[in-house]
From TrEMBL, chain B:
Keywords: Cell membrane, Membrane, Transmembrane, Transmembrane helix, Transport
Location(s), subcellular: Cell membrane
Stretches that traverse the bilayer: 12-30, 100-121, 133-154, 243-270, 290-314
Gene3D superfamilies with a match to the protein in the record: MetI-like
Family of the protein in this entry: Belongs to the binding-protein-dependent transport system permease family.
Name of the protein in its database record: ABC transporter permease
Regions annotated as coiled coil: none
Length: 326, 326, 320
């Protein structure tokens, strides 16, 4: 990776509650390079989306960044507030939400939503903005963009709407896109198209992508590298091929085992016993140890080791084990 | 859409027919019009002649149709109390009520929406909380007490504003207006506040709760994520969506303003149709009561119809759904 | 007009069956104890109701007993001995020397009676029609709900005025004052039944198709019995909430009508009538004749309102 577009160091998000401080994101670090797609996977509640919201500065209070640094394009942004942060949103960091049915304002024509975004960030005339809006729609593969620009969101199908959402996220040419479960709400038949579209657009523009999903299939298809999150922490980080084929963290292994993934050729699906702990009742040591088939005494005493130079697994006894524990 | 409008108009017509029936029944069953119109020295011949003149010897449905026909032509009979055509009295009094209601409605809508938006955006602020607490008292405070309170403060104690009447009025064609004289405008202040305050509170609370709901929506988050200015998010995106449900209730509130004018007009001895109606009830002046009922029904039904049409112009989804008849 | 909904400030939905009983056992009293607003408004309402019921015992004078009146006592200022008689009145006296405190107690009695009776009337009427509409369906339902729709188009107070006006026209002149209170109750009650009917109809429609009602039908229970035994308990908590909020509205409606001179007659003055009388003395400086009844009305309406608000939240866990 030549240069890091997004660089996160020791990012910690806290939510103060009456019963103490919760840490939905707890000291994670990673980089995303130009044109690179980093997949973030994990169960719901693992802190994937919270990390994405922290980067784009849309944490809903009382959640806040308590520690760590976020750099985008070499500039530190985690301490930016109000209008300074607003200027970055859309311009430097674009975001694609999960549900295209609810992310578009139903009362505004999509052309208006595009031009308002372009005018908010680029110093162009209205007619130029409208021209660019048509181009943006065209680029995401909406047929008849010139006419469709005057349509309302409800006049599009789900897949088409997600294309519009992607056009909106990309229209001010950000260097980073955060895609939060971009295909979860779509028909299976459309999912692959959207992923392919997102991937090709970003590759052509050199846009870095933070692809948040719980779907290993999406990761396998789109990501260059993958980060596995568990209970607010990074469990494993590495090139997608390595992580998928030879997972080193037992949690990743379990996750793979519970995913129907053709390439792994396993006959049966496994299930990780138990459920991810609630944030207000985290176990001591490595948060995964109560569910881990390989856990030892050390695991309940010490939190997992730091990821060595941003790669590998945060596990005291990474896989593969020579002799499997019974 | 056309079908929908026709359906609504048909419904409105039905409501008016029912109201007409109520009004007509009042004529027929409450008190004897013959008694009311003829003096003590009447002969059976007089009674029969009048009965024939008024068509009272005809069957009920025929009388009802005749009554409706008369009402449509603006012929509501003769006031028992004043001995003049009811239509003339109503026309004379209508400008006072309409001017008062217009100013109050204007006040209620603009202040209500403005304060509602303010309290929703500045949800945590001191001012917003103070306004919300005050509004709770405002809802419990009967209109007539507000009026008395204002009179006590601004007329009795401070002596700034008149406590009753319309001030000087100017005749413009068939319309008497208080808008053109200083005393007329001054006289308008207290009554319009009294009349508008309750509706304003209702609209404000409604706008606030709807707006808070809308601000939680995905498309608002997406608008923020696109880096739109806070003002654009709040007003272009949130307010417009808030207004869709607000319009219905607001429309009905405007109808209520004309009805509640009865109370305000009584407190301030405002020479409008409301005061006329109250006096009519006190003296059981059936023709005036019936005419007022018909008149106010036409207004209500008209407002309802306009509200429905407004709905269409704001929400494109409705337009599409109705025309495609999903 | 059928698809109009209540403003979101008043979400009164049909809730599942045993909400009220569960709430009464646990959460209900817990939240009550933790809400100072609820405790204070409940206390104010209880004190006022008791004072109204026992007005003849509590009131220092009987303002309607001509024998106890002394015109010389007229316009006594509050807490100040009268210049002629030396009598002192807590809240002063009106033009005829009637003790304002006593008239307020008696006025409150009438206000509360009219309000409660009107709500009770509206409740019985609304529940009956709602059950009928929901259970029988067909033409019965269409007619009932159409009437409800048309009535909802108009503000309740206007409907009440109209009914009062018509009733006044029907009553012989010599009975008008005597009948006024009852006419008032019917007028306000008739203007307010729709809310009840809508909720009960909604609940009935939901319950009608549940297995236990079908089963009860199969074993031959008669329809009215099923309705009363099975459906009624389920709508108890929304009905209770509506009743409380309606009580506040009915008290205000009564006061408004009486203030306008189309309600309680001067021979049986309610709080609204007292305010109407008091308004006449505003300019001449006898503020207490107006102020104290007005403050009483406000305290009463506000307390019942707050109590209704709290009750709605307490019985509706969705909002908690």
């Amino acid at each position: 990776m030549s240069e890091a577009i997004l660089s996160i160091r020791d990012l910690t998000v806290e939510i103060p509650t009456r019963h103490g401080i919760l840490r939905p994101v707890d000291g994670i670090s990673y980089d995303i390079g130009r044109g690179e797609v980093l997949g973030i996977v994990g169960e719901s509640g693992a802190g994937k989306s919270m990390a994405g919201n922290a980067v784009i500065g849309l944490l809903s209070p009382p959640a806040r960044i308590a520690k760590g640094e976020i750099h985008v394009g070499g500039t530190r942004i985690d301490h930016l507030k109000g209008d300074a942060m607003r200027r970055l949103r859309g311009k430097e960091i674009g975001m694609v939400f999960q549900d295209p049915l609810t992310s578009l304002n139903p009362l505004l024509r999509i052309g208006d939503q595009l031009t308002e975004t372009i005018l908010a960030h680029l110093d162009v005339s209205r007619s130029e903005a409208e021209k660019r809006a048509v181009a943006a729609l065209d680029e995401v593969g909406i047929p008849g963009a010139r006419e469709r620009i005057n349509s309302y969101p409800h006049e599009f199908s789900g897949g088409m709407r997600q294309r519009v959402v992607i056009a909106l996220a990309l229209c001010a040419e950000p260097s980073l896109i955060i895609a939060d479960e971009p295909t979860t709400a779509l028909d299976v038949s459309v999912q692959a198209q959207i992923i392919a579209l997102l991937k090709s657009l970003c590759r052509n523009r050199g846009t870095a992508v933070m692809l948040i999903t719980h779907d290993m299939g999406v990761i396998a298809e789109a990501a260059d590298r993958v980060a596995v999150m568990y209970a607010g922490k990074l469990a494993e980080l590495g090139p997608v091929r390595d992580v998928l084929t030879t997972p080193r963290h037992p949690y990743t292994d379990g996750l793979m085992g519970s995913t129907p993934l053709a390439s792994r050729g396993k006959a049966r699906l496994h299930q990780i016993p138990g459920a991810m702990p609630r944030l207000d009742a985290l176990p001591s040591g490595c948060a995964f140890h109560p569910r881990c088939p390989y856990a030892q005494d050390k695991c309940s005493a010490d939190p997992g080791p730091d990821l060595a130079d941003g790669n590998g697994a945060a596990c005291w006894f990474p896989l593969p084990h020579d002799a499997k524990v019974a | 859409m056309l079908a929908f409008i026709i359906q609504r108009i048909a419904q409105s017509a039905l409501v008016l027919l029912v109201v007409g029936l109520v009004a007509f029944s009042m004529f027929s069953f409450v008190g004897d019009p013959i008694d009311n119109m003829l003096g003590q020295e009447r002969t059976q011949a007089d009674i029969d002649r009048l009965r024939g003149q008024l068509g009272l010897d005809q069957p009920f449905p025929v009388q009802y149709v005749k009554f409706l026909g008369n009402a449509v032509q603006g012929n509501f009979g003769i006031s028992y109390r004043q001995g003049r055509p009811v239509a003339d009295i109503l026309l004379e009094r209508a400008p006072a009520t309409l001017e008062l209601a217009a100013v109050s409605g204007f006040l209620a809508i603009f202040m209500g929406i403005g304060l509602g938006v303010f309290t929703a955006i500045r949800r945590e602020g001191f001012a917003a909380n103070a306004i919300m607490s005050l509004s709770l008292i405002g809802v419990s405070l009967p209109t007539f007490l507000i009026g008395i309170l204002l009179i006590y403060l601004f007329s009795v104690e401070l002596g700034w504003l008149p406590s009753f009447g319309r001030g000087e009025t100017v005749r413009v064609g068939g319309w008497t207006t208080g808008f053109l004289t200083e005393s007329g405008l001054k006289a308008l202040i207290l009554p319009s506040i009294t009349l508008g305050l309750y509706q304003m509170t209702l609209i404000m609370r409604l706008v606030r709760s709807e707006m808070l709901e809308v601000l939680r929506q995905d498309y608002i988050r997406f608008a923020r994520a696109r880096g739109l200015r806070e003002r654009a998010v709040n007003f272009r995106h949130a307010l417009k969506n808030t207004l869709v449900p607000v319009i219905t209730v607001t429309g009905l509130q405007l109808g209520s303003i004309i009805a509640f004018a009865i109370i305000t007009e009584t407190v301030f001895q405002w020479p409008g149709v409301g005061l006329l109606f109250i006096n009519a009830i006190q003296f059981v002046d059936i023709p005036v009561m019936a005419a007022y009922l018909m008149l106010i029904s036409v207004m209500f039904v008209g407002i309802n119809l306009i509200v429905d049409l407004l709905y269409f112009s704001i929400d494109p989804r409705l337009r599409a759904d109705r025309t495609k008849a999903h | 007009m059928t698809d109009r909904q209540l403003p979101p400030d008043m979400p009164i939905a049909v809730k599942d069956p045993s909400r009220l009983s569960i709430a009464l056992q646990s959460d209900f009293f817990y939240t009550f104890k933790r809400s100072p607003v609820a405790i204070i408004s409940f206390a104010v309402v209880v004190i006022m109701v008791l004072a109204a019921i026992f007005a003849p015992l509590v009131a220092p004078y009987n303002p309607f007993d001509p024998a106890s009146l002394n015109l010389m006592n007229g316009f006594s200022r509050p807490m100040t001995p009268n210049a002629f008689t030396g009598d002192t009145f807590w809240l002063g006296t009106d033009d005829q020397g009637r003790d304002v405190f006593s008239t307020i107690l008696y006025g409150m009695r009438i206000s509360l009676f009219v309000g409660a009776a009107a709500v009770l009337f509206a409740m019985i009427l609304g529940i009956t029609l709602g059950l009928l509409a929901g259970y029988v369906g067909g033409w019965t339902e269409t007619i009932i709900m159409r009437i409800a729709d048309v009535q909802l188009t108009f503000p309740a107070i206007l409907v009440a005025m109209l009914i009062f006006g018509i009733a006044k026209g029907v009553t012989p002149v010599e009975h008008r004052d005597q009948m006024a209170i009852w006419v008032l109750i019917i007028a306000i009650g008739l203007s307010d039944w729709v809310q009840f009917a809508r909720v009960v109809r909604g609940a009935t429609l939901v319950e009608k198709n549940k297995e236990y009602v079908q089963a009860a039908r199969l074993i031959g229970r008669r329809s009215p019995a099923i309705m009363v035994r099975h459906i009624l308990p389920n709508v108890l908590s929304p009905v209770l909430v509506i009743a409380t909020i309606s009580l506040a509205l009915a008290i205000i409606a009564e006061a408004t009508l009486s203030f306008l001179g189309v309600g309680a007659p001067p021979t049986q003055p309610s709080l609204g009538t007292l305010i109407r009388i008091g308004q006449g003395f505003l300019f001449s400086g006898e503020w207490w004749i107006l102020l104290f009844p007005a403050a009483t009305l406000l305290a009463l309406a506000l307390s019942v309102n707050l109590l209704g608000d709290w009750l709605r939240d307490a019985l509706n866990p969705r909002l908690r």
